[in-house]
Amino acid sequence: MNPWEGKTSLFLKTVTNIIILNVLWVLSFMPVLTIGPSTAAMYAVIRKWHLYKDESVIRSFILEYRLFFKQGLMVGTLWQFLGMLLVLDAYFFLQVQSIVKIMLIVVTVTAFILYLLTSSMLFSIMVHYQTKGLELIKQAFTFSVIDAKTTFAIILMWIGAGMILYYAPFTIFVIVVPVSMVSFRFSMIAFDKVERLPKIQSKSWGRFS
Length: 209
Description:
- It contains eight helices and no strands.
- It has helices at 7-28, 35-52, 58-95, 101-128, 133-146, 148-167, 172-195, 198-201.
- The longest helix has 38 residues, at 58-95.
């Protein structure tokens, strides 16, 4: 039997697809502002891999990038702005010499926790459900709070990936897609749990085909 067939061939093909998708993601968000569409397209390709065993990469990424460009650009830009605003607020409040310093820091930390909770599900929900605008933010937050255990697992995983990227920036070409794949699988577990709840089942949240 040819050793390059069967499981070995499948493994190599999977690794190759992951690396190609990771490189596509990096190249397509080079302008920084396009990180939203790039991330949405990456998650959409991962969704196809997970649900439909679709092994296409470049063609699928281009199609999904076009599909999610407008929404991804708006959400990505807003999310970058909010993230930078929270970081700047925290830095500014730490410099404040006043009795209200502790209160300001507590408010900022609380807002940042809510930001992380919503971020953990944001792109998974964007590509899995037909949700746009403020409803996307609301839905991402709702899912993250209802299944907090899965949410914190996703957040911790991304914190770990962030630490690796901080000390070894070149790993950005190989680490983002694998972490996103695990993150999406966790999100799907959360979706299944939440959708079983009676109040959630009554809502008409559609899915992309």
